[in-house]
Amino acid sequence: MRFPHPLPHPPEPGRSAELRRRFAEEARSGRPDLTTLCLLMGAVADRALDEAGIDGVQMELDRLAGQLPFRPGGPHAWATAMRDLLGERHGFRGSPADYQRLESSLLHEVLVRRRGLPILLSVVWMEVARRAGAPVYGVALPGHFVVGFGPVDEQVLADPFDGGRVLSGGDAELLVAGATGEALDPSMLAPADPLDVVLRVLNNVRAWGAARPERSEVSLWAVELALLLPSHPARLRYERAQLLVRRGEFLAGAAELEGYAEVVSTFDQPAAERMRGQARAARARLN
Pfam families in the record, alphabetically (predicted)? Predict the structure, then answer.
């Protein structure tokens, strides 16, 4: 499977609005689909990903799922089968260099490159395994996303970033200790909700954009998609306002600052006044 290269080509305004509408509709549906949300996110980032490309990703995931053995057994057998297929046969894995690439957070690009961040590689693992009937889900360990198979009391973890290596309990403890310096808590092993996965992906995109001020348009679309999720940090409105002002959209940024100030004023009046002052300063930059 091949998709057009290179990135990035943000979509036209009209198409972008339609993609965001579809993203919000899917996120607020009864059973939001993780693949669909990731692909709509990719289409917002890259205008080269059209409807045919989106369908192509779905077909590629189906094709990969069709290469798995029929119901290989329990959780460990599923984890091993996925490692053999995606990690060893098809070469999906990650490296430190992948953290420097926006493509590493876009599902359609990860399928092409066979490289990505832990969470996007985990999305590939989950969506292929789910199509094959596996009891699979994401596990949002602090600092490192992995995949779980089977019920929690029989859980088997695999690390797609490491080619699908099947983890022992000690391995998971080391991952958490390396990321946070803390001990593994059983609550960290709970299945991740699809919308939490999407928010975490968008957080990664925001972090990528924040490190590259010249790519503020990436930070902006990531914030705006996160704001469309049913549950999101309220402070994202303030981040959006700052981005708009930084990009020279002073009126829009001032309006967002004032709107967020109204929310904040119910519990932090001094902070609300500071935001109103920032709104006035933004408008003054038009003079």
Answer: TPR_9 (PF13371), Transglut_core2 (PF13369)
CA angle 143, 144, 145 (to 5 degrees): 130
Three-state SS for 181?
coil
Q: How far is CA 123 from the centre of its chain?
A: 9
Closest CA to 29 of 229, 234, 233, 236: 229
The secondary structure element, H or E, covering residue 171 is helix 169-180
What is d(CA 7, CA 132) in angstroms, rounded to the nearest whole number? Answer: 31
The Cα–Cα gap between 34 and 144 comes to 18
Q: Which pLDDT tens digit goes with each residue over 60-91? A: 999 999 999 877 789 999 999 999 999 999 99
Q: 214-269 pLDDT, tens per residue?
A: 999 999 999 999 999 998 888 999 999 999 999 999 999 999 999 999 999 999 99
Torsion sign across C-alpha atoms 113, 119, 122, 127: negative
Measure the CA–CA gap between 250 and 208, rounded to whole angstroms. 24
Q: At residue 150, what are phi and psi to the nearest 5 degrees? A: 85, 170
| Rounded (to 5) percent helix, strand, coil in the chain | 65, 10, 30
- Give the H/E segment covering residue 140: strand 136-141
Nearest to 209 by CA among 217, 200, 198, 201: 217
Task: Report pTM.
Answer: 0.90
Report the alpha-carbon distance of residue 86 to residue 199 in Å, rounded.
25
DSSP 8-state code for residue 89:
I
